[in-house]
Amino acid sequence: MSFYNTQSRHKTQWSVTFKSEMNLEEYFARIGYKGSTEKQDLETLTDIFQHHIRAVPFENLSIHCGEKITLELEQVYNKIVRRKRGGWCMENNQLLSWVLKSLGYDTSFLGAYVFNPHQNAYATLMTHLVVKVVIDGKAYVVDGGFGVSYQMWQPMELVSGKDQPQAPGVFRFTEKNGVWYLEKMRRKQYIPNQSFSNSDLLEKKECRKVYMFSLEPRTVEDFRFQCTYLQTSPDSLFTKKSICALQTTDGFRALIGWTLTETTYNYKENMDLVEFVTLEDEEVEKTLKEKFNITLERKLVPINVKGSYTI
Q1: Cα angle at 143 between 184 and 42, to 5 degrees?
Q2: How many structural domains comprise the chain?
Q3: Taking the CB of residue 292, how many other CB atoms lie within 10 A of it?
Q4: Looking at residue 10, what is its pLDDT?
Q5: Domain with 266 in it: what CATH number?
Q6: For residue range 11-47, what is the model confidence (pLDDT) as tens digits?
Q7: Contact between residue 116 and residue 308 where contact means Cβ atoms under 8 Å apart
C-alpha cells in the first residue's frame, strides 16, 4: 500500500493506492518454475505450461465439499496459488491467461463444446474455456484445464489436419466451415487389474473426439451461467463425479470418486500402463494429500455416478 498527497490552496488531500495482491513470483513458486521469462516465445510458454499442469490439478472438489466455484480472478488466484488447490477449465485457463498476458504474450479466450462419448454428441452448451496465444503470427491453443489423458502437454498449433504427437498421444485439429474440432488418438492400454478392464472410466475407442470451438473471441462473462449450471445441475457431469487429476512426468493420476488410477504413457512400445485401485473412505483424504498435494478445508463427499466420463 502506498500513500501520496496532493496540495491545494485550501487543503491537503490524501489518496490511497493498493498494490495488486497477485504477483507472478508467487505463482511461479507455486508451480515450481525457475526458468527465464525474458522471451515471449514458444519455448518459454511450453515450459511454464508444463510446470502448471504438473503442479495444479484439474479438479472439481469444491462442489463436493460445500464450496462455491467462482470466476473472479483474484479468488481463483487465491485458491490455486495460496491455498494450493486446483480447478476446472474456467479457473486453470483464466489464471494461465493472466500469467501469459502479464508476461507480454498476445492471448485471448475461446469457448468450446465438449464431446460426450456416451451420447456420441457434442454438448449444446459452451462450457469449456481455452486460451489462444499468438506468437510471431502463429496461433496456438493452450488448454491447462481438461485433465486426464485428454490433457495436452504442449501448446497446439492452430492448424487443420496436422498430426501433433505428444507424450499423451497424437492430437489433431480439423477445421470445417469455421468450426474447429479437436481429437486425440491414444495407444493401446495394459490393465494389470483385470477386474477394471470393463470399467466405464476406460475409453474404448482409440480415436476420441474431445471438443469443438470457433475462433470467436470470448470473455469470462460468457461463462457466468455455465459456471453456476455445472456446479448445481443434477444433469451436470461435475455434480455426478468428484474428480481430481494431475499430470506427472510420465503420465497422469486421477481420483474419480473412490477410484484411483495411475497411467504411465508408453510403458511399452505403443502401450500405456493403466493401474486401478479402489480406496476406502478413510483413504481418500490421505491420497489427495500424498498424490495430489491437496489439503481440503472442508469434508469431501466422494461421488461417482456411472457413465459420462472416461479417462
Answers
A1: 100
A2: 1
A3: 21
A4: 35
A5: 3.30.2140.20
A6: 333 333 333 589 999 999 999 999 999 999 999 999 9
A7: yes
| 108 domain-assigned | yes
Separation of CA 158 from chain center: 19
Instruction: From residue 270, give the alpha-carbon distance in Å to each of 157, 167, 276.
Output: 24, 11, 20
Does the CA dihedral 150-154-158-164 come out positive or negative? negative
Take residue 199 and report the three cell numbers written for it.
Answer: 470399467
The b/e string for 83-109 (b: 16+ C-beta within 10 A; e otherwise) is eebbbbbbbbbbbbbbbbeebebebbb
Active-site annotation, residues: 89, 128, 143
Query: Collapsing DSSP states into helix, strand and coil, what is residue 283?
Result: helix
Q: For residue range 262-275, list pLDDT tens digits in order.
A: 999 999 999 999 99
Residue 128's CB is within 10 A of a number of other CB atoms, namely: 24
Category of 59 on φ-ψ map: left (φ > 0), alpha (ψ -120 to 50) or beta: beta
Confidence (pLDDT) at 20: 56
Contacts of 25 (CB under 8 A, 6+ apart): none
Instruction: Give the separation between CA 149 and CA 28, rounded to whole angstroms.
Output: 25
CA distances from 17 to 5, 13, 67, 99 (A): 11, 13, 31, 22
pLDDT-derived band at 308, boundaries 50, 70, 90: confident
- Domain for residue 303, yes or no? no
Q: Is residue 233 part of a domain?
A: yes
Which residue range is the domain that position 50 belongs to?
24-292
Beta-bridge partners for 119? none
Taking the alpha carbons at both ends of the chain, their separation in whole angstroms is 46
Task: Write the burial class of residue 144 (CB in 10 Å: 0-12 exposed, 13-18 middle, 19+ buried).
Answer: buried
Closest CA to 272 of 165, 154, 191: 191
In a domain, 265, yes or no: yes
Q: Give CA–CA dist 207/157, Å, rounded.
A: 19
Secondary structure (DSSP) of 14-83: EEEE---S--HHHHHHHHT--S--S--SHHHHHHHHHHHHHHS-EE-GGGGTT------HHHHHIIIIIS
For the segment 234-245, the average pLDDT, to the nearest whole number, is 97
